[in-house]
Design goal:
The chain has helices at 9-14, 18-28, 40-47, 52-71, 119-122, 130-145, 155-164, 177-186, 197-202, 204-209; strands at residues 2-5, 32-35, 74-75, 84-86, 92-94, 101-102. With 217 residues, it is mainly α. Residues 1-206 form the Protein kinase domain.
Length: 217
């Protein structure tokens, strides 16, 4: 059983700058709840990869959560399976807002976890909310194939693959064309051309496979 932090809606609404955000996140640790099913990372390792209905529900849940954060000008910047936890009904909860920032302007700090970094962060360029959208693409790929899309033998090679958006879709396990389309429209080097969170929620792969109850079976 894992205790996780909960980002309280009211607290996010009163945050006015990134310094205060970090104070709020620290204080939020006082408010906790149980994530009965632990880390999504362990579940993914156990299964190898998720089926499309599971992956869809996780991506939809994350998209909705990030949409709320972005409305409050909060960029997470470190979404990965280790930072995603499951409650007793299989619903996702985002943990670890340590690299998050609240800002209406572009940021320049390189942070996060290598396999999930967007090209603009790898190249040490200014970035905005679109880095979270990129991460949704990497997670969608990992959920369906069992490994991040740009994984390589060395960090240097991973950097190169990210910068070139060197992505391939293996023949196994089987992944639908709709899923590949969503991934391809998120893993785009030009951040302005990535699908918006609203467009992700409206994507055919999501609408076809999502469980209206909001849980993963």
């Amino acid at each position: 059983m894992v205790i996780i932090e909960v980002v309280v809606v009211a607290m996010l609404m009163v945050v006015v700058d990134e310094t205060l955000l970090m104070v709020v996140v620290t204080k939020v640790l006082e408010y906790s709840q149980y994530a009965h099913n632990g880390e999504l990372y362990k579940e993914l390792n156990k299964k190898g990869h998720f089926n499309e209905k599971q992956a869809t529900m996780y991506i939809l849940s994350l998209t909705k959560a990030l949409a709320y954060c972005h409305e409050k000008y909060v960029i997470h910047r470190d979404i990965k399976p280790e930072n995603l936890l499951l409650d007793h009904e299989g619903r996702l909860k985002i943990a670890d807002f340590g690299w998050s920032v609240q800002s209406r302007s572009k940021r320049h700090t390189m942070c996060g976890t290598l396999d999930y970094l967007a090209p603009e962060m790898v190249e040490n360029k200014a970035h905005d909310y679109a880095v979270d959208n990129w991460t949704l693409g990497t997670l969608c790929y990992e959920f369906l194939y069992g490994a991040p899309p740009f994984e390589a033998e060395s960090q240097v090679d991973t950097f190169k693959r990210i910068m070139k958006v060197d992505i391939s879709f293996p023949s196994t396990p089987y992944v639908s064309l709709e899923a590949k389309n969503l991934i391809s429209r998120l893993l785009v080097k030009d951040s302005s051309r990535r699908l918006s969170l609203q467009r992700i929620m409206e994507h055919p792969w999501i609408t076809k496979n999502a469980n209206p109850m909001g849980v993963c079976n």
